[in-house]
Amino acid sequence: MAKTAQEKLDAKREKAYYKKHKNMYRVTPGDVIFNIINYTVFTLFTITCIYPFYYLFINTISNNKEVSLGRVNFYPVGINIDNYLALRNVNDLGNAFIVTTTRTIIGTALMVLASAFVGYLVTKQEMWHRSLCYRFLVITMYFNAGLIPGYMNMVMLGLNNNYLVYIIPGIVAPYNIILVKTYIESIPAELEESAFIDGASHITVFRKIIWPLSKPILATIAIFGAVGHWNSFQDSLIYMSNNPKMLTLQHRLYVYLQQSSNLGTLASTGSVSASQMKDAVEKMMNTKVTQYTVSMMSVIPILVVYPFMNRYFEKGIMLGAVKG
């Protein structure tokens, strides 16, 4: 069947369009060079970021003697999992893990709830002295009393050697409140207005509208809070001096690091006998391996949780940073 004039015209136009865009998107030698450099740089950067975790892992599953001699760099030597099994015999490590886990869960949950509710309140024009409260909140990001006054304050409040010292100071997080406030302001006001017309209260609006729609930013600040709680050891070091049962996992890791440094200094000075030197070196070897293993165990939970929260993190941090 012969083609009509219109079909011939359409075929000609399609051919011209394909030829035009084929030339437009043709890969030039410059594009090839740029892609090679780009992929090379980012591949090296990725390896640089991943290698410390890989190095830590292969040292925890290698022969302890090889690890102490520094021979494990790129692949495990004498693979074994005894180091992880031996963690059961480390004093107070299980208790420290429980303390760190509970403070991370409880502290993060309360921080997210407080940040969401306060962030919602400071967006309401009818709030009493809203601007003053918000500015006072922001000022605390830049000024604080310092370590010694802060310690004295905790002692006077009865929080010294108290588990609540891990939870209460971190409930109000100004930076997270600002992120939540900015995100809530991007939610269409018509949603709240229609709910108010139907007779809903502020609590109902917050619970049924604001909270569900704020999941990306809440997941973002949850990551901030969880990582902060999990990695914190300074508060344990300062406030739990007389309550060893409340020491955190990171504090135990800090103790192992200090022990390793002290034993290394002792062995290098030559101020001890041969038998004491041997005992010190053996303890230093055990402490080093334990330090690596505990470090790996302390990193694993964050590495496991983060990929599931990453999509919320990217969306929340971008939307929460549009306006100040």
What this model shows, in words?
By secondary structure, the protein is mostly helical. The chain folds into 2 domains: 15-81, no CATH class; 91-319, MetI-like fold. The protein contains 14 helices and no strands. The chain has helices at 5-24, 29-60, 64-68, 82-86, 93-121, 130-139, 147-156, 174-185, 189-197, 202-213, 215-231, 234-239, 249-269, 274-319. Helix 5 packs antiparallel against helix 11 (215-231), helix 5 crosses helix 13 (249-269) and helix 13 (249-269) packs antiparallel against helix 14. The longest helix is centred in the C-terminal third of the chain and has 46 residues, at 274-319. The radius of gyration is 29 Å and the shape is flat.
Helix and strand topology:
Layout: H1 5-24, H2 29-60, H3 64-68, H4 82-86, H5 93-121, H6 130-139, H7 147-156, H8 174-185, H9 189-197, H10 202-213, H11 215-231, H12 234-239, H13 249-269, H14 274-319
The tally of domains stands at 2
Oligomer state equals single chain
Global mean pLDDT: 75
Rg measurement, Å: 29 Å
Between the first and last Cα atoms, what is the distance in angstroms? 67 Å
CATH class identity of the largest domain: Mainly Alpha
* CATH structural architecture of the largest domain: Orthogonal Bundle
Query: Within the CATH hierarchy, at the fold level, what is the topology of the largest domain?
Result: MetI-like fold
Count the E strands: 0
Low-confidence stretches are 320-324
Following the backbone from N to C, one meets helices and strands in this order, namely HHHHHHHHHHHHHH
User: Helix count, per DSSP?
Assistant: 14
The CATH homologous superfamily of the largest domain is called: MetI-like
Percent range of helical residues: over 70%
Note the beta-strand portion.
Answer: under 5%
